[in-house]
Amino acid sequence: MLMVAAQMAARHPDRTRVRFETTMGDFTIELFDETPLHRDNFVRLVREGYYDGILFHRVIKDFMVQAGDPDSRTAASGQMLGEGDVGYTLPAEIRTPDTFHRRGMVAAAREGDDVNPQRRSSGAQFYVVWGKRFDEAALREVRERANRYMTTPLEPTSDMLRAYRIDGGTPHLDGQYTVFGRIVKGLKVIGRIQRVKTDDNDRPLEDVRILKAYVVER
Q: b vs e for 104-123, b when ≥16 Cβ sit within 10 Å of the residue's Cβ?
């Protein structure tokens, strides 16, 4: 799995990367040029120090870890989080099947289709995919269910079938959220975070905090 990520990263050495230092270890995200609105917005927030001190406020084992709520920076223990944001949204830049929810991908959180039919992204909240592994039959079953909510049904490609079998991920989210980056270093840190104990609102019982985020200068 880590070897696959390294091989993918090697194909795009000039892409922007962001380093996150957290209380559970460090990881690096590579941002996709194919989603320029999300890339540029993310870089601006990082350079402004927006993510420094923010918690991973929503963690679901075998699914994903989420951060970006500014209210989490000073949140009391047990306080419900997830509603805070920067006050604007971004147009969707969904590039499925070129990018999809394989393990280690970084995507923008958003409001649900009932209030956000255009699937516009949160201006700041993001999640890192963990997920599970799927054989071909299971993946096709997941896609069949997910396609009921898609205007244009999505058929898994050979790359998707291979990635979900080997790496794992969250295929039911494909085509519905903007994937704008991927972990290129420190995926094991995400694995540790997604295993922490959480309360009934999926907030870690012990805070997992982003200490600092910065753009990696080349």
A: bbbbbbbeeeeeeeebbbbb
Q: Residue 156 carries which DSSP code?
A: P
CB 157, CB 125: distance < 8 Å: no
Identify the DSSP state of 149: G
How far is the C-alpha of 59 from the C-alpha of 122, rounded, in Å?
Answer: 17
Amino acid type, 111: E
Answer yes or no: is pLDDT of 208 > 50. yes
What number of other Cβ atoms are within 10 A of residue 78's Cβ?
11
Helix, strand, or coil (residue 95) = coil
pTM exceeds cut of 0.85: yes
Which amino acid makes up residue 128? Answer: V
Per-residue model confidence as pLDDT tens digits over 103-158: 999 999 999 999 999 999 999 999 999 999 999 999 999 999 999 888 888 999 99
Q: What is the DSSP letter of 140?
A: H
d(CA 16, CA 31): 6
Distance CA(28)–CA(38), nearest Å, equals 17
Phi and psi angles of residue 66, each rounded to the nearest 5 degrees, phi first:
-130, 145
Q: Where are the beta strands (DSSP E) in the chain?
A: 17-22, 25-31, 56-60, 64-67, 89-90, 105-108, 121-122, 126-129, 179-185, 210-215
Closest CA to 85 of 135, 33, 120, 114: 120
- Does residue 169 surpass a pLDDT of 50? yes
- What is the chain's alpha carbon radius of gyration, rounded to the nearest angstrom? 16
